[in-house]
Amino acid sequence: MRNRYYISFRHIIWTLPIIALLTCCSAEMNDNTNDVMSEERPVNIIPTIGETSSRVAASEVMTSFYVTAFSGSSNKGKNIKYTWKDGQWTSTKNINWPSGNTAISFWGLSQSFANGKGISNSTMTYAEQHFDFTVDTLSAHDLLFASTLETSYNVLGGSVHLDFNYALAYPYFTCVQGIEDVTVIIKEVKVHNLRTTGTLTFDAVKDSKATWKLVSGKYGNYKQVFDTPVTLNPDLATAVRLTDSWIWMPQSPTKWKTTEAKPVPISEADEKHHCYVELKCQIIKNGRFIWGEASGDNEWESVYYPFSTNFKALAYSRPIQLTFTGGYLEDGTPWQPHTGEQITIANWITEDILVDPWQEMDPEDLIF
């Protein structure tokens, strides 16, 4: 009996170093595995805005944005709101990196994907990312978007840069006087028959790229009324800023097709959704009103200009220069003063609205 106990104890003594060695190897294997299959970690979202050469921190432009993320078909975060507060971005919920080196895609929007102002018919899945957006004619709202596709923790080190781009167009009007020896005062600018609604689809391959598909049958009129009417510079070569920046859907509208030789009334332009600009104004010569009145129902009278250009989604406001020549009347004929007196138009131009550079594009599909 004594020998059996002695042999068993001796076996135990021999076995201890082996157990220790196996335990050590097992620990090293676990440490190496954790490098590849780590626990989930929060994603650090870093948003920026603007053109590549002049990006700025998103906090300089917006106070909140929303993020949706997918890893394969697994939803890692749906419409999570980020808010700028106390000098940092905070979220309503963390998006976590998947364990290991699994890829994940992120889509960002300055409005809620689900119920943001102007947003409708939103589909945000791993396979499809698109929504409809309407630029309100009375109270337009900005729209910025971003995406970072198929990336991983090992590639980015835990932080994701969402580079937001502007999705809409921001033109404004300047105006040069084109009639000699008169005073032109403008009270209101109204642009008729612009497209208001489009479907934005995120690019499936390129980060922070998207395509607009304009929705047919959706048109509206956008106007600005000035608290202080704008008087044009009598110098025929000097433009003045006429409007604030508009917010419009990127598009190439069809121009109202009126000419002096073949007048087309604006009623027909409205039926066909052809675009034109209406100016409510007064024109004074030698102290007399030759268009509009000092007061009363006809204080401000309208003239009209055919209008078309390519409105691109840009990160800055783009000037559109109008040369005021009197334009056309409601029936499509060239403007003439009520008094019947002769006027000299110094800068009569075939295209009443001038934009440089001019670019022709398919009005239905705009890529930016």
Mean pLDDT: 82
Distance between the termini: 90 Å
Which strand-content bin applies to the residues? 35-45%
Order of helices and strands: HEEEEEEEEEEEHEEEEEEEHEEEEEE
The tally of helices reads 3
Provide the low-confidence segments as ranges: 1-38, 347-368
Strand order of the largest sheet: 3-2-12-11-8-4-5-6
* Residues in helices, as a percent range: 10-25%
Question: What structural class do you assign from the helix and strand content?
Answer: mainly beta
* General form: elongated
Rg, alpha carbons: 32 Å
Largest sheet: 8 strands, mixed
Number of strands: 24
What's the gist of this structure?
With 368 residues, the protein is mainly β. It contains 3 helices and 24 strands.
Please describe what this structure looks like.
- Strands 3-2-12-11-8-4-5-6 form an 8-stranded mixed sheet.
- By secondary structure, the chain is mainly β.
- It has helices spanning 2-36, 153-156, 266-272, and strands at 41-42, 44-49, 56-57, 64-71, 74-85, 88-91, 96-97, 104-109, 119-124, 129-134, 144-151, 159-166, 171-177, 183-195, 197-202, 210-214, 219-231, 239-241, 276-285, 288-291, 301-306, 318-324, 353-354, 365-367.
- Helix content is 12%, strand content 40%.
- The chain contains 3 helices and 24 strands.
